[in-house]
Amino acid sequence: MHMLTLRKVLVSVTLVPVFLLLAVICQGVPPNYDDIRTFEQRLPQHSSSVISRNPHQPQYIRFPGHLWGYGFNNVLQEAILMSYLAYASNLSFVFEDYTWSHSPLPWTIYDFALRPARIPLNALISGPTAGGPMPSAPNASRAVSSEFYMHVCGGPEGRRHVISSVNAPNDADGSVIIDWWMAQLTSVREPCIEIDSSAHDVFDRFFFGNPRILSLWDNLIASPILTDFAWSPLVQAAVSRNFALLQPESAKDLYDAHSPKSLSGLVALHLRRGDYKQHCPNLAEWGADYMGINQHPALPDRFDRSPYVNDADARLTYYLDHCWPSTEQVVEKLRDVRAEYPGLRRVYVLSNAGAWSLDTLKSALEEDGWDDLVSSTDIVLDSEQKYVAMAVDMAIAEKAEVFIGNGFSSLSSNVVMLRMAKGMEAHSNRFL
Length: 432
Known about the structure:
Helices cover 41% and strands 15% of the residues. It is α/β, with parallel strands linked by helices. The strands form five sheets. It has a five-stranded parallel β-sheet. Strands 14-13-12-15-16 form a five-stranded parallel β-sheet, sandwiched between helices. Strand 13, helix 16 and strand 14 form a beta-alpha-beta unit. The longest helix has 25 residues, at 2-26. The radius of gyration is 24 Å and the shape is globular.
């Protein structure tokens, strides 16, 4: 009897991983985006005939130490600045996949479900950073994929010039950092340039969380990196598919990616939940400020922690009010914004919270006179769009008449940057 019981236990223990694996697989196998990879391979700058006709061989700059395993918006803000540095230096930027894992398999496991280990950048964004054209700078070198770069520069004939970040002025203003890198790049004659960022990141998280980035603002938003930025066709198709939820006055308001015309009557609210329950108290302990872009002087909502420096409890309360607001605080903020924009009628909530957890907010807003609340959980997505849902949310927020963000969030920071680069008024960007 004892041996029989032990055998049952051993069999049960052995079967646990099998059942877990089956549970993961039953949730679906992610797409491989092969069609989008083919699109990237066929970009004109990847054509050998185009290269052979060019009397001047382009110079390529790659950042092998780019971020991976981080949220999309941490990766996006870095890629935008790296591609801007390449553009300012008259070099061809080498773009990379959005990489969550370096697993040899095309998928990895996250939250007990399979997710793509790598997603081609053109599944998320279009425009110069992803190899798109620059109509406003037709003579600039277009970005190339890392696959193409390795074809040109990876063999024994590839002449790669490596520049280390060890002496880069990382604590300086953004314009000083860009000027330093441009000075290092000017004298390089080899066609293939790689940045060794093992000493420290070219643009680290402290830089993005500091107003030092604002010294780049005027040149950055006027550059084709942002003026010609667009969301990928996959993302834009998802936005258009959900026109019934977004209720545009005209379908053209959804189709024209570069138009500054907004989705009239819609306020987009970024309500970060989940991991921020622990992150917000950490921000209070660290004495963090809003993201650098979110400290732009033209933005109306400011974050001032100075009155609470010596009072830990009051400081924590102040941070939570702006980082993890209650339903009542969210309703009050929306009410205040509606008083300034009386045409607002509908709320779109970008959130990592479950649908059930937004029910209380939806009821409270309906009681406060709002016509409707829809959220990320209501958006209809196909299997490929599911894994770029964060970009779909951002594309909607970018076109909303008013955006209310979380000042500590890189997602909110990127939305504010893209809205202002399109010419939308700074005052239409608010913070909780």
